[in-house]
Amino acid sequence: MSSSSIENLFQEHPDAITASICAVLVFLGWLTLHLGWLGLSLFILPFAYVIGGYSSAREGLTTLFQEKELDVDLLMIIAALGAAILGLWQQQYSFIIDGAVLILIFAISGALESYAMQRTERSIRGLMSLTPDTARRLVNGQEQIVPVAKMQIGDRVLVKPGEWVPIDGIVVEGYSTLNQASITGESLPVEKTVGDEVFAGTLNGNGALRLTIHQPPESSLIQRVIRLVEQAQTETPPSQQFIERFERIYAKIIVISGFLLGTLPPFLLGWTWEDTIYKTLIFLVVASPCALMAAIMPTLLSGIANGARQGILFKNGAQLEMMGRVKAIAFDKTGTLTTGKLEVIQMIALNQDEAALLRVAAALESFSEHPIGEAIVQTARQQKLEWSSATNVQAQVGKGVTGVLDSQRAVVGKATFVQTQINLENETFLQSSQQWEQSGKTVVWVAHANKILGIIAIADTVRPTASTAIAHLKYLGIRFIAMLTGDNEQTAHSIAQQTGVDRVYAELLPEDKVEVIQRLQKQYGTVAMVGDGINDAPALAQASVGIAMGTGGSDVALETADIVLIADRLEKLEYAIRLGRRSERIIKQNIIFALSFIVFLLIANFTGHITLPLGVLGHEGSTVLVTLSGLRLLRNEQT
């Protein structure tokens, strides 16, 4: 590895590198001590104390002098140094190892916290990469490439076919279809013409657009998405605030108690100073929070490993526990409850000749790159159909395609477009078309040789396991299940009926989804959000637990979410909740055991029924038992 690579590694993961070095030094100190090389061990271990404990000592002292508060970081330093001093005094050098292990545990905790902050920064960078840095500004009919940040209200912008829209604006000239999946999650491209608003981060289709900027670049929709993700991910949840308050109260009690124990007994109880210092150091050792820390982290790590075997990636150990508290779940529609891919759902053909219908439609749509056309061609290929090559093919953007097939005129497209070419007076086709459209499907009409051959229904299909997964979640006790989507009401309610969700929120922008999540949190407390698109990122960040689809999910959604369903298997949500509930039960059991054992050791210390070796043995033994208890979560949950 080159020097530059090592430097970059230190810059990107300084806390992880520090914890790793501390771990190596602790191991070498322990090894040399057990080999009888006392001098070498005493030379190595101070480096482990300094390297592993520097960050915690700095934070603890900063909190003490600036905020006038005591926290667990300072308590850890006092307990570790106390163990080292006691070890040197009593020539029980294994106590120095105990102090080094305590420091190592906190160093690992700091590395995990640092990783969480880096993940937030990566998700923000992913959002910012969606829009170009420059735009084509039009000045007196001439193009100028300028930074987006320098654009002003009233400027004109040219967006060519196939380009990403660089900034929010109003269309003043042109017609095109835009892929807005990154913003609204809509499965179909949206037609845009004069007077319509377009958003930065959306992909232009095959028409050139001229826009006028109606708001500053920093007020664009994608920038608002970025700010929402930043805000939601940096807010400390109530449970974390409670833990931090508890840690500071615990640290105050132990430090103050240790000080009183080390000074008052000679005057009040007639103890010798030797006995007083001895009992005080025992107190600091047995009261250190190692067992409490072991009550949580091994359990969560075991749960994470268990989830990984089941295709559930927990990015944050705390979210495993949070998953067990979920009371309501909000699902995105496109790519989450549905497959996110357009497919031919139904066909009605003249004289029931579906093969002839598909041949004509595929002959014209094979010249198109529109997702609807691709779905029709894919279906024809799956049925191993062959078709003649069409000539004089012309596409009317947003309407349909015309051409000549077998010397006869052919038309494929919307009803209003086909009607301009051929009379649509067919009662069966008209009724079926109306019913399909009301259920959220897109209807394609096909005509050839001056007669209607039939109609084809195109739709984004529901995942086969979606309805079963939601039914299991309700059986598990999830009180409310919602669907959030940028699609229209008809399509949304059609999907809802098929999947069994309790309520539909349709035609939502990313910020609207965040507002819905916030309302659900006020009503139900712990709320999970399941999504896959860039437009879901703010809601994933706002939710108590953000869950992303691993296969089809966007990079930003995967970075923002706390949990990833690696194979897009919604049925694994039930397993994740059961796993979270088990982890919460085990953590509570471990905490009760750890606190009870600390109290027992403290009582034994004050009554004089415990020596320092027994105190260390009890302290380390309780830590081992709690750790082994946490490993129970490695066993698969029976669902």
UniProtKB/TrEMBL annotation:
<keyword id="KW-1133">Transmembrane helix</keyword>
<feature type="transmembrane region" description="Helical">
    <location>
        <begin position="95"/>
        <end position="116"/>
    </location>
</feature>
<keyword id="KW-1278">Translocase</keyword>
<dbReference type="GO" id="GO:0016887">
    <property type="term" value="F:ATP hydrolysis activity"/>
</dbReference>
<dbReference type="InterPro" id="IPR036412">
    <property type="entry name" value="HAD-like_sf"/>
</dbReference>
<dbReference type="GO" id="GO:0005524">
    <property type="term" value="F:ATP binding"/>
</dbReference>
<dbReference type="InterPro" id="IPR023214">
    <property type="entry name" value="HAD_sf"/>
</dbReference>
<feature type="transmembrane region" description="Helical">
    <location>
        <begin position="591"/>
        <end position="610"/>
    </location>
</feature>
<dbReference type="GO" id="GO:0046872">
    <property type="term" value="F:metal ion binding"/>
</dbReference>
<feature type="domain" description="P-type ATPase A">
    <location>
        <begin position="129"/>
        <end position="230"/>
    </location>
</feature>
<keyword id="KW-0479">Metal-binding</keyword>
<dbReference type="InterPro" id="IPR023298">
    <property type="entry name" value="ATPase_P-typ_TM_dom_sf"/>
</dbReference>
<keyword id="KW-0547">Nucleotide-binding</keyword>
<keyword id="KW-0460">Magnesium</keyword>
<keyword id="KW-0812">Transmembrane</keyword>
<dbReference type="InterPro" id="IPR023299">
    <property type="entry name" value="ATPase_P-typ_cyto_dom_N"/>
</dbReference>
<dbReference type="InterPro" id="IPR051949">
    <property type="entry name" value="Cation_Transport_ATPase"/>
</dbReference>
<feature type="transmembrane region" description="Helical">
    <location>
        <begin position="16"/>
        <end position="49"/>
    </location>
</feature>
<dbReference type="InterPro" id="IPR008250">
    <property type="entry name" value="ATPase_P-typ_transduc_dom_A_sf"/>
</dbReference>
<keyword id="KW-0406">Ion transport</keyword>
<dbReference type="InterPro" id="IPR018303">
    <property type="entry name" value="ATPase_P-typ_P_site"/>
</dbReference>
<comment type="similarity">
    <text>Belongs to the cation transport ATPase (P-type) (TC 3.A.3) family. Type IB subfamily.</text>
</comment>
<dbReference type="GO" id="GO:0019829">
    <property type="term" value="F:ATPase-coupled monoatomic cation transmembrane transporter activity"/>
</dbReference>
<dbReference type="Pfam" id="PF00702">
    <property type="entry name" value="Hydrolase"/>
</dbReference>
<keyword id="KW-0067">ATP-binding</keyword>
<keyword id="KW-0813">Transport</keyword>
<keyword id="KW-1003">Cell membrane</keyword>
<dbReference type="InterPro" id="IPR001757">
    <property type="entry name" value="P_typ_ATPase"/>
</dbReference>
<dbReference type="InterPro" id="IPR044492">
    <property type="entry name" value="P_typ_ATPase_HD_dom"/>
</dbReference>
<feature type="transmembrane region" description="Helical">
    <location>
        <begin position="249"/>
        <end position="269"/>
    </location>
</feature>
<dbReference type="Pfam" id="PF00122">
    <property type="entry name" value="E1-E2_ATPase"/>
</dbReference>
<feature type="transmembrane region" description="Helical">
    <location>
        <begin position="281"/>
        <end position="305"/>
    </location>
</feature>
<protein>
    <submittedName>
        <fullName>Heavy metal translocating P-type ATPase</fullName>
    </submittedName>
</protein>
<dbReference type="InterPro" id="IPR027256">
    <property type="entry name" value="P-typ_ATPase_IB"/>
</dbReference>
<keyword id="KW-0472">Membrane</keyword>
<dbReference type="GO" id="GO:0005886">
    <property type="term" value="C:plasma membrane"/>
</dbReference>
<feature type="transmembrane region" description="Helical">
    <location>
        <begin position="70"/>
        <end position="89"/>
    </location>
</feature>
<dbReference type="InterPro" id="IPR059000">
    <property type="entry name" value="ATPase_P-type_domA"/>
</dbReference>
